[in-house]
Design a protein that fits this description.
The chain is of the alpha/beta class. It has three helices and eight strands, in the order E-H-E-H-E-E-E-H-E-E-E.
């Protein structure tokens, strides 16, 4: 029988579970504001950012796009759409802080922004300011938008 020790632990999320996690994160972020705007990290952060923007009643929403995965393989992050400026008063939302590579790029672009992720793995935690839940480094989260009904 083949070894499974290097295989990721797969976590399949439903919409209700994700929504509850993001709403909990939004409540914690509300106490840290006020925020002048929100930046979603596309693509994974788009849905969580929309929920946070709705919960916090933020009308100013922008995006940046960083690609770091090819399927389940993580590669070097590439900036597809960036932003510039200090980022003061901005809340940046992503789906997961995995290795911290995306968060480091965001921090370089918007050094004063507050970085939040729904989920954070141990290697990514030091690079975000807030997160909803910690997950194991070897976990692979399947988000509801990644599956067919």
């Amino acid at each position: 029988m083949p070894s499974r020790e290097n295989e990721p632990q797969i976590m399949r999320l439903g919409w209700d579970a994700l929504h509850a996690e993001v709403r909990g994160l939004a409540r914690r972020l509300a106490a840290l504001g006020p925020w002048r705007g929100l930046v979603a990290v596309a693509r994974g952060g788009l849905v969580p950012a929309a929920i946070v923007a709705e919960e916090l009643q933020l009308g100013l929403v922008d995006t940046l796009a960083i690609a770091s995965y090819d399927g389940m393989r993580r590669g070097a992050p590439r900036i597809l759409k960036g932003l510039a400026g200090p980022g003061e008063g901005l809340l940046v939302v992503d789906d997961i802080a995995d290795s911290g590579a995306t968060a480091r790029l965001v921090r370089a672009m918007l050094p004063q922004a507050h970085l939040a992720a729904v989920y954070a793995k141990p290697a990514g935690r030091p690079f975000v300011d807030s997160f909803a839940a910690a997950v194991a480094q070897d976990s692979w989260i399947v988000f509801p938008w990644e599956t067919s009904p």
